[in-house]
Amino acid sequence: MPxxxxxxxxxxxxxxxxxxxxxxTSFFSDYGCHVRILEETRILQRMGHDVTIxxxxxxNEVPGIAIERTLPIPYRVEYEVGSxxxxxxxxxxxxxxxxxxxxxxxxxxxxxxxxxxxxxxLSLGRLFGVPAVFDFQGSLTGExxxxxxxxxxxxxxxxxxxIESWVDHRSxxxxxxxxxxxxxxxxxxxxxxxxxxxxxxxxxxxxxRPATEVDPAALSSLRNRLGIPANHxxxxxLGLLAEYQGTTHLLEAMALLRERHPDVTLLLMxxxxxxxxxxxxxxxxxxxxxxxxxxxxxxxxxxHLALGDVAVAPKLSxxxxxxxxxxxxxxGLPIVAFETPVARxxxxxxxxxxxxxxxxxxxxxxxxxxxxPVRAAAQGEQLRRRAVQHFDWWQAGVRIVETYRKxxxxxxxxxxxxxxxxxxxxxx
Length: 428
Fold this sequence. Notes:
The protein has helices at 32-46, 86-104, 114-128, 140-146, 155-170, 179-189, 216-226, 247-257, 274-283, 301-305, 324-330, 341-347, 359-371, 373-390, 393-406, 414-418; strands at residues 18-23, 50-55, 66-69, 109-113, 132-136, 174-176, 196-198, 233-238, 264-269, 290-294, 310-313, 335-338, 352-354. By secondary structure, it is an alpha/beta fold. Helix 12 links the parallel strand 12 and strand 13 (352-354). Residues 411-428 have low confidence and may be disordered.
């Protein structure tokens, strides 16, 4: 369900909650679930609550956010992205660090992200008498299959599926980023729909703004620094570079577009596997039409996206969210995505959906927007409007806290706080 933008006052110190977020990832990095964790934390802080994030050793610090990190693993210094055998060691250390924090500090709620974080939150929460909630951002085994970490139907697949099912059924409340995720939990894992709280990824529409609202000098300077030809239109992609993200399909689409649109450059922003996809771009004959930026800091993402004429999201996964779509929408970009339930849910009727996994269909859809600027502009305006009206972080925070308080009967009811809302005031 889309979120509206009715504000609520910040919690008083008496009502402020102490929240421990368990993030089994190298927080903060500039993609996907990290952005969701960051923005949830920020909105909870704005509402007056105290949040501590416990996470892996690697990751960037974020000013104003309390982050507790695990001990390092000497033999593994890289960031962990996706499924990896090394994550087992990282998760063991994360469990120990979470245990230490719960032993030495008092928390009212544990907010576990991803299945690994929820497993720690549920297990250790029971030990210390602290209730836990689960922030579901995709199927555990679905992601492992996407990353080719598991063989379908194999012993490891069955083992991790059993863990996934246990976490899903033991969590008193599950936040899901999409209605598709809710359907997955209900239909495939037989979860009680009453325990599922749909909490869409949202966007800060004040930071992510259309190019018309951005300093032209800053845009021109960035364009020159990146080496984008002056007369070229720009297709933008921002996210991880990986097969399940459709990166190869996007490069193949550029090869198909090359002759039809000699004045178009693809700005491919993200990591990892840059050398792999740079080689693929060369093999496809589009090396001179693709600019690889590498990692783009989240704070710089709005300016980079404002360079775009069309945004693309060729993600193949059917189980994960697609928060990048909301950033594209807030910037007012026309969007082409592979047709998935998540993409349809976010874009409504205002995006172009290509046949999933079909590079030619992706190219044809991009071609439509490049050749019809009036349609592209209208679509971008409508998507911006949709993002502002329906995907606001403040109401996401309200929904999170309402769910927390259901597990804390001694805490004043949310209804009491809601009664104090100042009519017509704005927090955003």
